Amino acid sequence: MKWIKRGRILAEAGRHPWQVSHAAVPIADPLDDHTWRLFFSARDAANRSHTGCALVALERGVPRVSSIAPQPVLSPGRLGAFDDDGAMASWVTAYGARRFLYYIGWNRGVTVPFRNAIGLAVSDDGGRSFARYSDGPILDRDTTDPFFTASACVLIEGPLWRMWYLSCVGWELQEAKPQHLYHIKYAESRDGIHWERTGVVALGFRSAAEYAISRPCVLKDGDLYRMWYSYRGRAYRIGYAESADGISWRRLDEAAGIEPGPEAWDSEMIEYPFVFDTAIGRCMLYNGNDYGRTGIGLAVLERT
């Protein structure tokens, strides 16, 4: 693979009180071949996360953000809830006319900096607005995932809903500061709400230097499953893996075909990929430096 970068499509912040900084974890929900909704996570002045929505149009083959909704589609939850410091969308699954928005709910910790869980919001108007399924998470820490969960990717195959998600396996003190360790696990459901977890690791660490694998994005091409994701030792990079069944994966990071730079905004790190198909070909949305602070970029897969 080789991805051709088309530059940033969303870089500015500060337009609204909920959008002081960041445009992280991008998601495309295509409306047609030339238009899609772009969901992203922004932060307010208190550093709380909100999920915003923009419309992107392909004009003469060039993507352009045509508008940003003045209000977020999802904001932090009620005081004391699992998401009272942030609600960051990580995936949107179409189910008939409905949209299931899986999001990372988080709040601040005491012994560790934060705790995450996976929440769900549902749209009955095609993705224009969302309502929480509940005040509680649908995938929280338990005996299978004792530390936290986050970053769900959900596909529907017949009666089966399949999820690949981030699972924290522990915290370690590094220079007297807690550092998380997380990789990607797999779960199944019959309704997209109640999930069966057996601890199956879809994507594990390659070496002791690696401590974070996040934001899986899975597509099925015929009989082949493809996954793009973030992984890091010193700084985030975008990785790639393949699978015949969606459960056992072979990492092929060297074939991902996209690296940091050459522009300043993504010169240090690239992460949080979202891959989808459009009229101009297979596209990737991704973040650059500082976990989305510098905005969202677009790359198009080179045709061979």
Architecture blueprint of SSEs:
Elements lengths: L2 E8 L10 E12 L2 E9 L5 E11 L2 E7 L17 E10 L2 E11 L5 E10 L7 E2 L15 E10 L2 E15 L2 E13 L5 E9 L8 E10 L2 E9 L3 E8 L6 E2 L19 E8 L2 E7 L8 E6 L3
Antiparallel strand pairs: 1-20, 2-3, 3-4, 4-5, 6-7, 7-8, 8-9, 10-11, 11-12, 12-13, 14-15, 15-16, 16-17, 18-19, 19-20
Explain what you see.
By secondary structure, the protein is mostly beta strands. The chain has one domain (3-301): Glycosyl hydrolase domain, family 43 (Tachylectin-2, Chain A, 5 Propeller). Helices cover 0% and strands 58% of the residues. It has no helices and 20 strands. A four-stranded antiparallel beta sheet has the order 1-20-19-18, with no helix packed on it. It has a four-stranded antiparallel beta sheet with strand order 2-3-4-5, with no helix packed on it. It has a four-stranded antiparallel beta sheet with strand order 6-7-8-9, with no helix packed on it. Strand 16 and strand 17 form a beta hairpin. The radius of gyration is 18 Å and the shape is globular. It starts with a strand and ends with a strand. The model has no long low-confidence stretch (mean pLDDT 95).
Provide tags for this entry.
Tachylectin-2, Chain A; globular; single chain; mainly beta; 304 residues; 4-stranded antiparallel β-sheet; 20 strands
